[in-house]
Amino acid sequence: MIRIGCNRLPQRTNAWPVTMMALALIFPCLFPSSSQSVQAQEAAVAEAWSAWDQMPLLHDGRLKPMDTFARQAVQIISHRESPKLVVDGEIQKWEADKMVLSWLLLPQKWEDVEFLYAKLPELREEILDIPLTGKDGETLSYVSPAQLEEQWPIFFAKWQEIQQKRQKAQRTETTFEAVGLDKAVEELFEAYFLYRNLQLNSVDARTLVAVKNEFGQAHQRWQQFAGLAQFFQPNPENPEELGSVLAKFRNTHESLSDLLSQIWVEPAELDETLYSWISSAKQIADSLDFARRQLEEGEGPPNSQQLGEQLLRLQLTFVQIAQSGEVMQEALYGNREELVVIPALNAEALEAFRNPEQEISAWLDLQSVLKGSLDHLEELGYPRSEIERVRGRFASLEEVANAPESRQFGDALSAFVSSIRYLGTSVDDMRADLDLKDRDEALLAATAYPPTDAMALEVHYNHFDPFGKSWMISGLALLCFCLAFGVMRKWMFWAALTVMTVGMAICIYGFAIRVAITGWAPVTNMYETVIYVALCVSIMGAWFILSPLTTDGLRLAWRLTAVPLTWEASKLSPIEERAVGTEKNANLISLAFLLPRIALMGVTFYILSMAPYAAGDRVILPLLPQADVVGSAMPSFQKLLAWAVGLAVLIPSVWYIPRAVMMMLIGVVTIPLARLKSKSSVMQEVYARWPFGVAATFAATLGAFTAWFSTSVLDGNFKALQPVLRDNFWLAIHVITIVSSYAAGMLAWGLGNISLGYFLFGKYRDPVKAGAKRRPPASCTPLSQYIYKSMQVAVLLLAAGTILGGLWADVSWGRFWGWDPKEVWALISLLVYLAILHGRFVNWFGSFGLAAGSVLGASAIIMSWYGVNFVLGAGLHSYGFGNGGMMEVGLAVLLNWTFLAMAFTRYRLELADRGEAAQKVAPASEDEELSEESAEAEEEEMEAVK
Length: 946
What we know:
Blueprint: H1 2-30, H2 32-53, E1 56-59, E2 62-65, H3 66-78, E3 84-87, E4 90-93, H4 96-105, E5 116-117, H5 121-128, E6 142-143, H6 145-150, H7 152-171, H8 180-198, E7 203-204, H9 209-225, H10 242-260, E8 264-265, H11 267-297, H12 304-334, E9 340-343, E10 363-365, H13 366-371, H14 374-379, H15 384-399, H16 407-430, H17 441-446, H18 456-464, H19 466-482, H20 489-518, H21 526-560, H22 574-580, H23 583-609, H24 637-677, H25 683-688, H26 690-709, H27 728-761, H28 780-813, H29 821-841, H30 847-872, H31 886-912, H32 926-945
Antiparallel strand pairs: 1-2, 3-4, 5-6, 7-8, 9-10
């Protein structure tokens, strides 16, 4: 019995897991509605937020999703896209889209919340009179709207003082840049009014500028005839009489004047007052017209003609006042920039030959939809019932605003967004019936209400943040390359290449999204060029690392695409002979590839010199020189120069581009074939090229991190492209080429700094013979060759990019070369690299000189790339101008040159030490030293290759 019980106890113990698993499976089945309802609620709320994020807006000249707009707005207001704030007594991290919607629905909740960025000590102490630190000693960075309004007179006076400085600079044609306290005040002013505008309960002073200017003109007209109004006494029994209407207009005019004198105005109150003012002016004009006609038709007093002329002038005055009121309404409804949510029925904004000075939006803002006068909106043509539906849905959303996680909130938000979409599509259809003199079809298409999910790709881009990930992945690849030594050398080397490839793939994916969204080549601003350099330097680094595996195969492919029996059909190398056999076989294969090459040459020639690609059927590279003026017989020197350079580009392009394309296609076969026929392994050479990986990943990490971190200097937001850049062919071919040269220069710079590190910290070697100088560390020799090859690529791309830039300049500005600062510094960069390559080629200097030259060349590139746009800020390339970062960039360059000076100091000291045995030997001349060092470098390079 006891024995049996003891045997059963373990069995019961082992049954517990089975029992618990059974209960876990059965329990949800007993209460299915609870878990399913929670999941359904979460799904509904998530879907509602997704719809809110994708709601299209017109902002900064393009359509963008609410998610993008919210991120940009919160960045301006709080200096972070997702700030951590104390709300309702708890520290919470707020996402931008939820923050903006909360401002709309619960404006009173945020009055005492500190979220307006105000970190500068002088701003907090001198202007706002608030503490610098919190209770626990933490630095405070924000101020609440209530705190700012308490100190508004002092703050606004300081802002006005800054504006006076800016106006004075404009009058004296000098520059004024707000720094320190001035900059902080202007940023806080902008943040505060942006926040107020997003609450939909005010119209700020800046929005009222156009309204005030027009009202001032109307006020002057009214003052000219205000004295006549005393002759028309109001009749309480008949409000339609002229005296009663004039009294109503006078009162409304005073109310409107008081409203416009305020800093911000309630939109509904302003809209109603303005609407009443316009109606009164029109009614007065009609009454005066009626009185004047009665006077003309009846037998009036002797001075009836003079009185009729006065009535006519008075009538015309009120007609003009009513017209000014309509202009004020257009400014009130057409010039808002925040939350512009549906197409507008504004004919003037859609005319092909519209007045560029009138900044009238092609879309209508949410404040007008929710707060504007229904009568006026209906007069303008907007469907009243649908606007009332939007307002009703918004009111329902406000009722559940305090429960943003509830199913009711999700349903209300989805319904509100749907009503906006329905209103937008309805108004979009109505725009087809607008009476337009010259319909701008392109503008109508660009500002049409987008289809569902049109904004989804940009929202995905925002959330995925590919370039934010790329610098971290590049940094991980850099770490793997640095750990590629010892037992783990091979594993870490290939792990680094794999991670590096993943980083490049993510970066390419990010650029693909940007191209899909904008339609332009992804090098339209400084931010994109920095990211592109980070990508391109990684590609170049990987290419140089793997080139021992691909070079023989690509050379074979290049040989097989040659024209037989010409200079192109060079003698076969041993590997090529083992791959294809005899020269006869190679020529037969080349002959077979000749026909497709000729076909590709024809296509290339047609695309470059015959196919129209722009306005006026302009071709890319014309075969004949173009005159400056239509009908002119002789072209100018600049046009002749552009034509000659164009021909010099066209001929080799037609000859070699098809061959290069075929080489890449055939290389898919010839690269593995050459590897099979090779008798030697090149893997050791591949592993020896780890400096390319370190240099490339370091430069990529630095560039991508700079773009990701320096948001105040490098703006990564999508923006409408400047007109001068709206040429996708030249934008792609010129800018990508020139920026790729920057990447090659940065690769050489990275390799150069690795070499300088060896010169500074490495082990110098004893001389091979008495009297000779000590030799630099052994690693400096292959690094010198790597730097040289990288510089060759930089020179090739820089020269091509500069020439192509001149051809684009001829298209854009009518001249090939004009000594513009950008052109000058591109030429200087090219000449610097040419001088370095030539100096090394003729042995003016050795491996240290080449490493130092990489720093010099990079400095020239930084000046051409950053300095011209952000420091000089002059020339025709104003579309690329910016500001900020000057101190950081200058400090980085200074540190690099300091590092170079330290390496040079040790280099000179080491070479001065010749050892005791060599003291009595006469020193060699500089030329002998350079020749000896060059010979030793060549010998060591050959040994490394073997």
